[in-house]
Design a protein that fits this description.
With 217 residues, the chain is an alpha+beta fold.
C-alpha cells in the first residue's frame, strides 16, 4: 500500500473583494520593517518567540523533512561568547577576506566588525540547517527550505512589534560549540531580536519600485 495519504484541506477563505485590501494592509505593515542594530534591553513578552518559531516552522520544505532548528539564546554569558567569536570572524572578513568591491557595497549601510547587538538584544535566535545525521533524515533543498522559514520568522516577529537583524558571520562553525549543537546541524543565520532603542537610526536606503522587481509574462 502506498504511504501517500491525504486529509481535507481547510484553506483560509478571504472574500475576493477583500483580497487586495488585505494584501495591501500586510504590505503596509511589512514595509516598516527595517534591519536594526541598536536595541533596548527590555525583555520580550512571554510566548512571543515561541509563537514566532511556530509560525516559521509552518514553512514548506523539500520532502517535508523540515530541516531547521531554532536555538533561542538569552543567557548573558552565552551571548557574550557568541559576540566574541562572531567579532573575531568579522575582523578577519573586514580586514582580509572581503574584496574591495564587497566593502564598497557595504559602505552605505555603515557596517563593520563591531557587533554589540549580539549582547544588547534580549534574545538571539541562531537558525541551524539540519543535515543527515544519526537521528535526522537526509534533507532536500535545505537552504531554500530554511530561507523560507526565516522569512516567516522575521515577518512574525515584526508583526509582534519586535526588531530583528540577519547576521551571517562566515565561517559559522563556532556556533555549534556556543549553542551546543551536533555536527549535522550547520548554522545559517544569527538573528538578534528585541525592541529597537529609543534613539535607534537606520541607513537612509530605498527599496526598488514594483516595476523593478515584477515581471509579467
Amino acid at each position: 500500500m502506498s504511504p501517500y495519504q491525504t486529509v481535507p484541506l481547510h484553506p483560509l477563505v478571504v472574500p475576493a473583494e477583500q483580497a487586495q485590501a488585505r494584501a495591501r494592509e500586510f504590505h503596509e505593515v511589512m514595509a516598516r520593517r527595517r534591519t536594526v542594530r541598536d536595541y533596548d534591553r527590555r525583555p520580550i513578552p512571554d510566548g512571543v518567540l515561541e509563537w514566532a518559531v511556530r509560525t516559521a516552522a509552518t514553512a514548506p520544505s523539500g520532502a517535508h523533512v523540515q530541516p531547521w532548528r531554532f536555538v533561542v539564546v538569552t543567557d548573558p554569558d552565552r551571548k557574550r561568547r557568541l559576540r566574541e567569536a562572531a567579532e573575531a570572524e568579522e575582523r578577519e572578513f573586514y580586514g582580509h577576506r572581503a574584496s574591495a568591491e564587497w566593502l564598497a557595497a557595504l559602505e552605505p549601510i555603515g557596517t563593520d566588525w563591531h557587533k554589540p547587538f549580539l549582547e544588547d538584544a534580549p534574545a538571539v535566535i541562531v537558525v541551524f540547517e539540519v543535515h543527515k545525521g544519526p537521528d535526522s533524515p537526509r534533507p532536500y533543498y535545505t537552504k531554500e527550505s530554511v530561507g523560507i522559514a526565516v522569512g516567516l520568522l522575521l515577518a512574525s516577529l515584526h508583526q509582534a512589534g519586535l526588531a530583528t537583524l540577519t547576521h551571517t558571520p562566515s565561517p559559522m562553525k563556532f556556533l555549534n560549540e556556543v549553542c551546543e549543537r551536533p555536527a549535522e546541524e550547520r548554522a545559517a543565520y544569527v538573528i538578534p531580536v528585541g525592541y529597537p532603542a529609543a534613539a535607534a537610526h537606520v541607513p537612509d536606503l530605498r527599496r526598488k519600485e514594483l516595476d523593478e522587481v515584477l515581471v509579467r509574462l
